[in-house]
Design goal:
By secondary structure, the chain is of the alpha/beta class. It is built from twelve helices and twelve strands. It has helices at 3-6, 10-16, 49-61, 77-83, 96-105, 118-125, 143-153, 191-200, 219-229, 238-243, 253-270, 288-294, and strands at residues 40-44, 68-71, 90-94, 110-116, 134-138, 160-164, 180-184, 204-206, 233-235, 247-250, 276-278, 283-286. The strands form two sheets. The protein has a six-stranded parallel β-sheet, with helices on both faces. The protein has a six-stranded mixed β-sheet with strand order 7-6-8-9-10-12, with helices on both faces. Strand 4, helix 6 (118-125) and strand 5 form a beta-alpha-beta unit. Helix 3 packs parallel to helix 11 (253-270) and helix 8 packs parallel to helix 9. It is elongated.
């Protein structure tokens, strides 16, 4: 069900979903996560091809009625989110903005977030009192795992560096990683100077989903600077693969949607759990043109 179709007849849609509007104050809630897949609201950060691709596996894989799709920029978004704020409801968020809106308008609904980096999810729910109603499937691949994958393709890569806007990207365990060095851009520092420092101390630079660093305004200059220094980027997205990263390791939106569907089915079988983990699905894209230009031999894994 697309957003356009959903609002052609709001009365009919409301009647379809009326079973979940019972207030916990007037009826005793039952944990439908033990009884089967609950009715679900899918909130996307925007109505775009990326989020529609992430939604597609849930639309195909869950029984009728499929999850209701809304986007955070829809004028009726807050109303729909409020309607699904009950203990027997589940809201799936795709993207950072979607989770922020759900936080603003809910107090009871179980929330599964995906298409979101770990750092963004942790930052948003840090001050939430009821942490147990939030589960997450992080889209970013852990740095240690990306290092191992990159070394399998290019054994010559031994030392790695990370450039970030603030010191927040240490490992999941909080312990230092061997042969990985962090460079934090200071507010008064030229961004390219930081990349020059990072390139001089490493064989490759691991990118992060850090919009302060990797955005359309900066990416061309970053690519030109690292290319001239002969230090390749190990990207975290398809966009960076197209922009010129030597190797990009990432999960496509539909892959993440398939994994979210598996998580929802698991929750339905076993009951709700506030699990939070990185995606286990990913693909590796090699930019062979960049490899030839930098005279880097890329091996099959």
């Amino acid at each position: 069900m697309t957003r356009t179709a959903a609002f052609l007849n709001p009365v009919m849609i409301l009647l379809t979903w009326i079973g979940i509007w019972i207030s916990p104050a007037t009826a005793q809630a039952t944990d439908i996560f033990h009884e089967g897949v609950p009715r679900i609201l899918f909130v996307a950060s925007q109505d775009s091809e990326i989020h529609q691709s992430a939604y597609a596996p849930l639309r195909r894989g869950l029984a009728y009625p499929p999850p209701l799709f809304i986007s955070a920029d829809d004028t009726n978004a807050a109303q729909w989110i409020g309607h699904f704020d009950c203990r027997d409801c589940m809201i799936v968020t795709s993207g950072t903005r979607a989770l922020q809106d759900v936080l603003n308008f809910t107090q009871q609904a179980r929330v599964l977030s995906f298409m979101i980096p770990m750092e963004s999810h942790e930052r948003l729910i840090r001050s939430v009192a009821d942490q147990e109603r939030f589960a997450a499937l992080y889209m970013d691949i852990p740095l240690e795992k990306r290092m191992l994958i990159a070394r399998r393709h290019v054994p010559a890569l031994r030392r790695f560096s990370v450039v970030e806007s603030q010191p927040q990207s240490q490992t999941d365990t909080g312990t230092p990683v061997e042969n990985l060095q962090y460079f934090v851009k200071q507010p008064d520092q030229n961004l390219l100077d930081v990349f020059i420092q990072a390139a001089r101390h490493s064989d490759a630079i691991l990118t992060l989903p850090d919009r302060e660093i990797y955005n359309p305004r900066n990416i061309v200059s970053i690519m030109m600077t690292t290319y001239r220094l002969g230090t390749p980027l190990i990207g975290h997205s398809e966009a960076l693969h197209r922009a010129g990263a030597l190797i990009s390791i990432y999960a496509e939106p539909e892959m993440l949607g398939e994994e979210a569907l598996a998580v929802i089915r698991g929750q339905a079988r076993e009951g709700w759990k506030a699990l939070r983990r990185h995606t286990e699905l990913y693909q590796v894209s090699v930019n062979h043109q960049v490899a030839r230009s930098l005279r880097i031999t890329v091996e099959a894994p």
